[in-house]
Amino acid sequence: MSATPATDGPANDMGLVVVGAAGRMGQTLIRAIHSISGARVIGAVERADSPHLGKDAGELAGIGIINVPISDDPLPVFAKADGVLDFTTPASTVEFAGYAAQARIVHVIGTTGCSTDDNARIAAAARHATIVKSGNMSLGVNLLAVLVEQAARALDADDFDIEILEMHHKHKVDAPSGTALLLGEAAAAGRGIELSGNDVRVRDGHTGVRKTGSIGFATLRGGSVVGDHSVMLAGTGERITLSHHAEDRAIFARGAVKAALWARGKKPGLYSMRDVLGLS
């Protein structure tokens, strides 16, 4: 049974909760929801020690008062929502997935750095919640992943090596990024192999020659870079580079809202942005 939609505002609007609402991405999500037809902010959640508890989420995000105070208790907020947008931490996301399953609502997950166990628990929650999870919510990156998969399939591993280069701002805590891993999975799928066991994430010292068919990662961190990703297919005498440069984190927020609106009314399950964009 689905949660009862919030009644304030247009009756058909999707009531969304933003968790981590006071952070940079949380505020960006609030602004994105406010700007997109068919969705509205009906809840905002922060950790218990946040100095922003009780503040109006809209005012904090710079869109004016929306009468949504920031709370540290997700349960009553989830109970009146249609969906939740989540770009927090793996531990928090697993917890929120359980709450979304209890409330039978949509859970859009942009959190990166999840472990195998975290992903298993999220998949278990998807038996009751409609979950859209992606290492990157932008249209451009997900189209790039499709192109990477096609290129990897077309170009033989004996002739072309695959290297993934990514750079993010100095505050990012996980590496490789979720987007780099998303692209790595796409390359592996194109080659018909598993990424795990065929990935090379660190090179240091005398490494020996490059293993044929391996997928390499290089990680850069610094400054305020939102996200740069390049997939290089390097052959003898030629090199193909497929790239995406994120200039504003609002692209991820807009993608997350799009995902939530798409997922409304869908059966419980674990979906990806490829599903949302019809690229599966």
Number of helical stretches of at least 4 residues:
9
CATH architecture of the largest domain: 3-Layer(aba) Sandwich
Largest sheet: 7 strands, parallel
Low-confidence stretches: 1-7
- List the helices and strands in order: EHEHEHEHEHEHEHEEEEHEH
CATH class of the largest domain: Alpha Beta
Main location: cytoplasm
Binding site for (S)-2,3,4,5-tetrahydrodipicolinate: 169, 178-179
Active site: 168, 172
Binding site for NAD(+): 20-25, 46, 110-112, 134-137
Q: What's the short version?
A:
The protein has helices at residues 24-35, 57-61, 74-79, 90-103, 116-125, 139-154, 178-191, 250-263, 273-276; strands at residues 14-19, 39-45, 70-71, 83-86, 106-109, 130-133, 161-168, 199-200, 215-221, 227-235, 238-246, 269-271.
Characterise the protein shown here:
This protein is of the alpha/beta class. It has 2 domains: 12-132 and 248-275, Rossmann fold (3-Layer(aba) Sandwich); 138-245, Dihydrodipicolinate Reductase, domain 2 (2-Layer Sandwich). The protein contains 9 helices and 12 strands. It has helices at 24-35, 57-61, 74-79, 90-103, 116-125, 139-154, 178-191, 250-263, 273-276, and strands at residues 14-19, 39-45, 70-71, 83-86, 106-109, 130-133, 161-168, 199-200, 215-221, 227-235, 238-246, 269-271. It is elongated.
